[in-house]
């Protein structure tokens, strides 16, 4: 309870730069009979050429005090990539390199952990160094970086389309659903890209999509979470459109979420494990207020609901944030303990414990962190295979922010 009592103080400390890795889209559905009303869509933002979303997102908060709840990645696993945009590619400045020969090809057939073995042998150390450096300067860098990967894969597949910034702002970054993606994540990818391109052997030979996949893994590992071999060889998208963004809602229940997940070959185990990414990050009161006003919904512990009301004012302040669990910068299973205790911050978090198909999985992950880690790794590998592009509809972008 002591940790929860500090929610107000810590949430105020990160009000301008908190992170919520899985965010839910705003598609107008009500998320099921038990879901609370949908929040109004947040205003759109402008992005600068160096991956900087809104100006008020660019200041990293001070590290949270010991014992307070952490910042967490997103909670809405919408692993439903739409069809690739029908955009005409420009002449490629960075043709895709031939992959290294490897006996360790995945059963996917198109990706391999060894794809860059002969192309950029120092790739993994270069990316991890960039992620480590950003995490040292920003306590939300890990959560922000992990969330970018989730959002990118959920839209048109894991193709770095989320990084594209169109001159007319008709891109994924400027959609209302991506409003709360933090600059720290974009800056982490930019730092990794710069480190790779500074190596003459690697310059313009690594896809932005693969950089995002490696950075997401490293953000988890450097936060104390599990490691895994990242499958590589993704092509980057040729373009991006705001209209392609259709993410799950924080107001959706398990059947609504599973309708999205199962359409992409994802299981309820994937849903629960990827929701566990909330162990890093926080969410805006935009996605909380409908649960606590005018009265708290029945899926919240009354004491916790009071804590949330103390953080999120009834006259909505979108720049105030709430942590998802009590281990601020550690990747662990505390999120599931919170969900068990009716202290899930989002309705979609709470819903996991009130549906017979997911309740047992929450209990298993709450009791056994290794079980959570094992499933999270499996789910991240599956996530990373969504919507893969080929040479026919993708490229290796020389600049992650624009097509070649």
TrEMBL record:
Co-factor requirement: Ca(2+); heme b
Catalysed reactions, as listed in the record: 2 a phenolic donor + H2O2 = 2 a phenolic radical donor + 2 H2O
Cystine pairs: 120-202, 153-158, 208-400, 285-312
Region named Disordered: 27-83
Record-listed substrate binding positions: 248
Low complexity compositional bias, start-end: 73-83
One GO MF term: metal ion binding
Note accompanying the cofactor annotation: Binds 2 calcium ions per subunit.
Residues given in the record as Ca(2+) 2 binding sites: 279, 325, 332
Major location (coarse): secreted
Residues the record marks as site: Transition state stabilizer: 147
Subcellular location: Secreted
PANTHER family recorded: PEROXIDASE 16-RELATED (PTHR31517:SF48), PTHR31517
Biased composition (Pro residues): 60-72
Signal sequence annotation: 1-18
GO biological process: hydrogen peroxide catabolic process; response to oxidative stress
Positions that bind Ca(2+) 1: 152, 157, 159, 161, 172
Protein name per Swiss-Prot or TrEMBL: Peroxidase
Active site: 151 (proton acceptor)
């Amino acid at each position: 309870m002591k940790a929860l009592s500090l929610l107000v103080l810590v949430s105020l400390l990160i009000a301008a730069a908190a992170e919520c890795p899985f965010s839910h889209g705003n598609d107008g559905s009500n998320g099921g009979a038990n879901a609370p009303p949908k929040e109004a869509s947040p205003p759109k933002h402008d992005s600068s050429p160096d991956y900087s979303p809104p100006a008020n997102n660019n200041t990293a908060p001070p590290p949270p005090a010991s014992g307070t709840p952490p910042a967490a990645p997103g909670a809405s696993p919408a692993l439903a990539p739409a069809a690739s945009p029908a955009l005409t590619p420009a002449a490629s400045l960075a043709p895709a390199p031939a992959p290294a020969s490897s006996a360790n090809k995945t059963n996917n057939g198109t990706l391999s952990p060894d794809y860059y073995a002969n192309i950029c042998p120092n790739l993994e150390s270069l990316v991890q160094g960039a992620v480590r450096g950003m995490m040292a300067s920003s306590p939300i860098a890990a959560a922000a970086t992990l969330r970018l990967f989730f959002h990118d894969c959920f839209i048109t597949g894991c193709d770095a389309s989320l990084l594209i910034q169109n001159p007319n702002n008709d891109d994924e970054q400027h959609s209302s659903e991506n409003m709360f993606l933090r600059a720290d994540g974009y800056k982490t990818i930019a730092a990794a890209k710069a480190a790779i391109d500074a190596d003459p052997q690697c310059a313009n030979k690594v896809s932005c999509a693969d950089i995002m996949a490696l950075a997401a893994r490293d953000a988890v590992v450097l936060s104390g979470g599990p490691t895994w071999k990242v499958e590589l060889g993704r092509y980057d998208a040729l373009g991006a459109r705001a209209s392609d963004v259709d993410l799950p809602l924080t107001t959706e229940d398990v059947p609504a979420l599973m309708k999205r997940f199962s359409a992409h070959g994802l299981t309820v185990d994937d849903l629960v494990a990827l929701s566990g990414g909330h162990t890093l990050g926080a969410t805006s009161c935009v996605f909380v207020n409908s649960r606590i006003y005018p009265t708290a919904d029945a899926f919240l512990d009354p004491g916790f609901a009071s804590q949330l009301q103390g953080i999120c004012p009834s006259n909505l302040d979108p720049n105030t944030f709430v942590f998802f669990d009590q281990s601020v910068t550690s990747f662990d299973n505390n999120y599931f303990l919170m969900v068990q205790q009716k202290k899930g911050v989002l309705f979609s978090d709470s819903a996991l414990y009130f549906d017979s198909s997911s309740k047992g999985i929450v209990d298993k992950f709450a009791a056994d962190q290794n079980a959570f880690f094992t499933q999270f790794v499996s789910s991240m590998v599956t996530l990373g295979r969504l919507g893969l592009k080929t040479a026919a509809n993708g490229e290796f972008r020389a600049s992650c922010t624009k097509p070649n």
